[in-house]
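Section 5: illustrative case.
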């Protein structure tokens, strides 16, 4: 072969003629005898049938933005992708990239790594920084074979990496695969479902449940809990566990059919099935349990079977609001844990058989209307000293006879009466009014206000709270929302959404009644907490070495995460000293001051 022929062949390999891509298409014509080089382009154009659209004949052709400063390389990519039915647009100057994105609205960007002025990694980061364009897949096509550069590009937000020279069919396949994946993710997001599992979002489920209760009280709300998660995590690691739970999520999605289902955390799923007949509820729950337990999930080279517990509430019982139905199903799940069958249905108590309890529940409506909800306070004092005033708020209900009822009696009745959200909101309003009055008097203060997570995740609650703070001119840092650990574990994901709206405003979250455990410890890292309030078990059983050691490790764990720790129910100096030696930050209890209605504790001169 002459040197000229070699150059010609190299040129044809680098810059293939129009229609060259068609030799790898599924409908390509059979191979024919070689023709003269001069006839290649003519023959290819004459025999090529119209190319199918990359996205399917029923959809508009995909738009691909090609970012390439080398004209010959840009022409190659443009010819191959255009021939495959895509609409291509070329940008050769980095500074024109974002304007081209706005003009073209591409479905995919084919990016060169080395661009004058600003390289492809920087352009990708620029694209990813804009929410409107962050979903657009970016495929890099470059001759740079340095693996470190590949990693940098992927870290900047690239979706795929192709190395030059690339065969046309490989380029077409990579682009089409990325387009299809992006389309699938977009359709799933628009449908409100998780793109990998098909499960609904938590918000979508709550919205549907809110629309059904109390207007259409039919069907079932059920919690599904997977047992043995801790052992699975220890054996297969977090990555293996997540793979297993993703498969389980897909399986549950198939099992519930048209019902709405969401994943709450590592162990728990929530299902709202409005079309299940009352007569078939138990069979439905058993079918779920058996279909999960009877399925072998692949993990590494093994097949794993999962045991499921099901607790459900029949909506025909007439729960007054969604939170009451969820609480009923949650209670049923707790009961299911203690049964051999692993299934339990919520059985509403006969409140009409207990005249005193019924009367108390009915009085809650009057207490709200007549402003008989009150607050009591207990100081939370820094062990290291300081003059920052902060109090725990405790709700009280004053009966018509003048008797004060504690939260422990009021809240269960409020839940039964469907008034838990209203009571929680009134407590917050009173706390915010207290903060406003103190601020106007020139005194700063922080209040810890207990709330149920079911109230916090109600649609619109976060917006209402932020508006209430702004209306009173209060700093968000003056408020700490206190949520019990057992409540937070059930609603961890929804609380993350609530916190995401609170954190920018400075409102913090405190995890109350903390007791060490795998799930509780994971919760410390999952939620953007500021404080942890230890369970009273720690302060009341400090004479037990096991409890002391567990408390010390819990304090250390919280501190590593940047959290401050509160010891509560501190009744004597010996308990306070032990807490102090364990590294506690604050104490609260009768040793400091008993609960009362005043806010006159002297923080500046307090000595523990």
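Designed sequence:
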């Amino acid at each position: 072969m002459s040197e000229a022929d070699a150059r010609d062949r190299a040129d044809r390999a680098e810059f293939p003629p129009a229609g060259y891509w068609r030799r790898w298409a599924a409908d390509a014509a059979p191979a024919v005898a070689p023709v003269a080089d001069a006839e290649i382009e003519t023959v290819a154009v004459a025999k090529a049938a119209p190319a199918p659209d990359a996205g399917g004949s029923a959809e508009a052709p995909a738009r691909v933005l090609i970012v390439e400063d080398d004209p010959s390389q840009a022409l190659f990519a443009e010819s191959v992708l255009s021939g495959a039915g895509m609409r291509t647009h070329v940008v050769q100057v980095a500074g024109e990239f974002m304007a081209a994105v706005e003009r073209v609205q591409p479905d995919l960007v084919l990016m060169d790594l080395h661009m004058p002025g600003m390289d492809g990694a920087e352009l990708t980061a620029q694209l990813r920084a804009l929410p409107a364009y962050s979903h657009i897949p970016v495929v890099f096509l470059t001759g740079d074979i340095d693996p470190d550069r590949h990693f940098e590009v992927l870290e900047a937000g690239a979706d795929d990496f192709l190395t030059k020279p690339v065969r046309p069919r490989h380029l077409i396949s990579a682009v089409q695969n990325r387009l299809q994946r992006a389309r699938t993710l977009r359709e799933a997001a628009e449908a409100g479902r998780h793109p990998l599992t098909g499960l609904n979002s938590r918000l979508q489920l709550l919205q549907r449940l809110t629309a059904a209760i109390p207007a259409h009280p039919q069907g079932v709300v059920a919690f599904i809990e997977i047992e043995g998660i801790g052992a699975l995590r220890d054996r297969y690691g977090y990555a293996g566990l997540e793979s297993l739970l993703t498969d389980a999520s897909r399986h549950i999605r198939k099992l519930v059919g048209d019902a709405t289902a969401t994943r709450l955390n590592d162990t728990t799923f929530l299902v709202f099935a409005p079309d299940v007949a009352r007569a078939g509820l138990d069979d439905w729950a058993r079918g779920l349990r058996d279909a999960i337990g009877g399925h072998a999930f692949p993990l590494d080279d093994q097949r794993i079977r999962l045991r499921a517990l099901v607790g459900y509430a029949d909506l025909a019982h007439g729960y007054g609001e969604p939170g009451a139905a969820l609480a009923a199903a949650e209670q049923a799940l707790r009961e299911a844990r203690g049964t051999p069958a692993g299934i339990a249905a919520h059985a509403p108590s006969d409140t009409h058989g207990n005249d005193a309890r019924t009367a108390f529940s009915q009085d809650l409506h009057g207490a709200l209307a007549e402003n008989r909800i009150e607050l009591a306070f207990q100081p939370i004092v820094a062990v290291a000293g300081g003059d920052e005033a902060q109090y725990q708020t405790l709700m009280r209900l004053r009966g018509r006879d003048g008797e004060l009822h504690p939260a422990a009696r009021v809240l269960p009745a409020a839940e039964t009466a469907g008034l838990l959200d209203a009571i929680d909101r009134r407590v917050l309003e009173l706390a915010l009014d207290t903060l406003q009055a103190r601020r106007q008097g020139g005194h700063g203060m922080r209040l810890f206000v207990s709330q149920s997570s079911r109230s916090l995740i109600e649609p619109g609650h976060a917006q209402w709270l932020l508006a209430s703070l702004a209306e009173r001119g209060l700093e968000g840092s003056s408020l700490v929302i206190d949520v019990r650990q057992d409540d937070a574990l059930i609603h961890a994901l929804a609380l993350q959404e609530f916190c995401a709206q609170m954190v920018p405003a400075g409102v913090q979250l405190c995890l109350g009644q903390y007791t060490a455990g795998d799930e509780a410890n994971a919760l410390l890292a999952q939620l953007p907490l500021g404080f942890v309030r230890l369970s009273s078990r720690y302060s009341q059983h400090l004479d037990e070495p096991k409890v002391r050691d567990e408390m010390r490790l819990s304090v250390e764990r919280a501190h590593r995460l940047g959290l401050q720790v509160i010891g509560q129910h501190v009744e004597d100096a010996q308990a306070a000293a032990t807490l102090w030696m364990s590294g506690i930050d604050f104490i609260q209890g009768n040793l400091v001051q008993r609960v009362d209605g005043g806010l006159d504790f002297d923080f500046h001169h307090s000595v523990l």
